[in-house]
Design brief:
Helix content is 24%, strand content 20%. It has 153 residues and is α+β, with helices and mostly antiparallel strands. Strands 1, 2, 3, 4, 5, 6 and 7 form a seven-stranded mixed sheet that branches.
Amino acid sequence: MWKLLLFVVVIFVSPVFTQDRQKEYLTTLNGWAFIKVPVEGAMTNHNLGVTCAAERMRRVCYSPDRWGNYWTWGCIEYNPGFDSTLHAIAYNMCRSHHCTALDYTFVYRSNYRPDDSAYGNDAAAVALYGGDYHDKYALCAVVDANLHIMTCD
């Protein structure tokens, strides 16, 4: 009986432990290095902020500067020439608004949904509601000069 129980537990639990989700450097724009960082739990604005802070990085808002919609204090500011941070990075990396490197990557967007959902996208859709997703990626940023002390093992 115990062998069967152990076998069942290993089958159902092992996928959780075999996911190899690591930080990933994406690109540098206007002095900011953008890093894709795994998040545990729901993709909410709060969880994104906690994740970036734990990595000693800054959170990234949907709008790249304080004059855009959906920017909030505590987010980085830069001027990439786009109204959306994810579009700016996608274009920089892939020369298109759709870039598979950004699949299931979320940014802070205040007042997006009542459930504190962050904003995300993937190659097939934009405007993913963070509250509907778990264990995906936050887009965090660090000043480019600090890249030499950061590791993305």
